[in-house]
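Our consortium's second objective concerns turning raw sequence data into structural hypotheses that experimental partners can test. To show how far this objective has progressed, the report includes one record in full. It was chosen at random from the queue rather than selected for favorable results. The single chain below, 105 residues long, was entered without modification.
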Amino acid sequence: MTLKDLSKLNRDPSRVIYISAHALESSFQPENSVPIKPWKLEDDDTALIDLIPFLEYVALHRPADIRPVLASYQGHDIAREFIERSKEHQKRMQEQNQHGRFWQR
Protein backbone atom coordinates (compact mmCIF):
# COMPACT_ATOMS: atom_id res chain seq x y z
CA MET A 1 0.00 0.00 0.00
CA THR A 2 1.47 3.34 -1.02
CA LEU A 3 0.75 6.57 0.77
CA LYS A 4 -1.46 9.01 -1.11
CA ASP A 5 -0.47 12.65 -1.04
CA LEU A 6 -3.60 14.49 -2.12
CA SER A 7 -1.64 17.72 -2.56
CA LYS A 8 -0.15 16.15 -5.69
CA LEU A 9 -3.58 16.44 -7.31
CA ASN A 10 -3.04 20.19 -7.69
CA ARG A 11 -6.50 20.81 -6.20
CA ASP A 12 -7.69 22.85 -3.27
CA PRO A 13 -7.62 20.37 -0.33
CA SER A 14 -10.71 21.99 1.16
CA ARG A 15 -12.63 20.57 -1.81
CA VAL A 16 -11.17 17.03 -2.00
CA ILE A 17 -12.71 13.84 -0.60
CA TYR A 18 -10.60 10.69 -0.67
CA ILE A 19 -12.75 7.54 -0.52
CA SER A 20 -10.86 4.30 0.01
CA ALA A 21 -10.84 1.10 2.00
CA HIS A 22 -7.43 2.22 3.22
CA ALA A 23 -8.09 5.95 3.35
CA LEU A 24 -7.00 6.65 6.91
CA GLU A 25 -3.91 4.46 6.77
CA SER A 26 -2.74 5.48 3.30
CA SER A 27 -3.30 9.21 3.13
CA PHE A 28 -1.09 12.11 4.14
CA GLN A 29 -4.35 14.05 4.60
CA PRO A 30 -6.61 11.90 6.82
CA GLU A 31 -8.91 14.90 7.33
CA ASN A 32 -9.98 14.46 3.68
CA SER A 33 -10.49 10.72 3.98
CA VAL A 34 -13.69 8.70 3.95
CA PRO A 35 -12.96 5.11 4.90
CA ILE A 36 -15.16 2.34 3.53
CA LYS A 37 -14.93 -1.40 3.99
CA PRO A 38 -12.78 -3.20 1.41
CA TRP A 39 -14.64 -4.82 -1.45
CA LYS A 40 -14.14 -8.57 -1.50
CA LEU A 41 -16.25 -9.46 -4.55
CA GLU A 42 -19.43 -9.56 -2.45
CA ASP A 43 -22.62 -9.11 -4.44
CA ASP A 44 -24.30 -7.32 -1.54
CA ASP A 45 -21.55 -4.72 -0.99
CA THR A 46 -23.20 -1.32 -1.34
CA ALA A 47 -20.62 0.87 0.44
CA LEU A 48 -20.11 3.24 -2.49
CA ILE A 49 -23.78 3.36 -3.45
CA ASP A 50 -24.70 4.13 0.17
CA LEU A 51 -22.48 7.23 0.03
CA ILE A 52 -24.37 8.73 -2.92
CA PRO A 53 -26.89 10.77 -0.85
CA PHE A 54 -24.06 12.31 1.17
CA LEU A 55 -21.98 13.05 -1.94
CA GLU A 56 -25.00 14.57 -3.71
CA TYR A 57 -25.65 16.79 -0.70
CA VAL A 58 -22.02 17.94 -0.66
CA ALA A 59 -22.07 18.60 -4.41
CA LEU A 60 -25.30 20.59 -4.13
CA HIS A 61 -24.41 22.65 -1.06
CA ARG A 62 -20.69 23.11 -1.82
CA PRO A 63 -19.31 23.69 1.68
CA ALA A 64 -16.42 26.15 1.77
CA ASP A 65 -14.26 23.44 3.35
CA ILE A 66 -15.18 19.75 3.29
CA ARG A 67 -12.79 18.85 6.11
CA PRO A 68 -14.95 20.13 9.01
CA VAL A 69 -17.93 18.38 7.43
CA LEU A 70 -16.03 15.08 7.35
CA ALA A 71 -14.75 15.69 10.89
CA SER A 72 -18.34 15.96 12.13
CA TYR A 73 -18.82 12.33 11.07
CA GLN A 74 -15.64 11.05 12.73
CA GLY A 75 -16.25 7.70 14.37
CA HIS A 76 -19.48 7.15 12.42
CA ASP A 77 -20.39 5.42 9.20
CA ILE A 78 -20.97 8.52 7.05
CA ALA A 79 -23.65 6.95 4.86
CA ARG A 80 -25.77 5.80 7.82
CA GLU A 81 -25.16 8.89 9.92
CA PHE A 82 -26.06 11.20 7.02
CA ILE A 83 -29.42 9.43 6.61
CA GLU A 84 -30.10 9.73 10.35
CA ARG A 85 -29.20 13.43 10.37
CA SER A 86 -31.38 13.99 7.31
CA LYS A 87 -34.34 12.31 9.02
CA GLU A 88 -33.83 14.47 12.13
CA HIS A 89 -33.62 17.60 9.99
CA GLN A 90 -36.85 16.68 8.17
CA LYS A 91 -38.57 16.05 11.49
CA ARG A 92 -37.46 19.45 12.86
CA MET A 93 -38.62 21.20 9.69
CA GLN A 94 -42.04 19.54 9.90
CA GLU A 95 -42.35 20.54 13.56
CA GLN A 96 -41.43 24.14 12.72
CA ASN A 97 -43.99 24.21 9.93
CA GLN A 98 -46.67 22.85 12.24
CA HIS A 99 -45.85 25.41 14.95
CA GLY A 100 -45.87 28.17 12.36
CA ARG A 101 -49.35 27.19 11.21
CA PHE A 102 -50.57 27.11 14.80
CA TRP A 103 -49.43 30.69 15.45
CA GLN A 104 -50.90 31.96 12.18
CA ARG A 105 -54.47 31.12 13.22
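The partners drew two points from this record. The beta strands are 18-20, 33-35. The chain has five helices and two strands. Both points have been shared with the crystallography group to help prioritize constructs.
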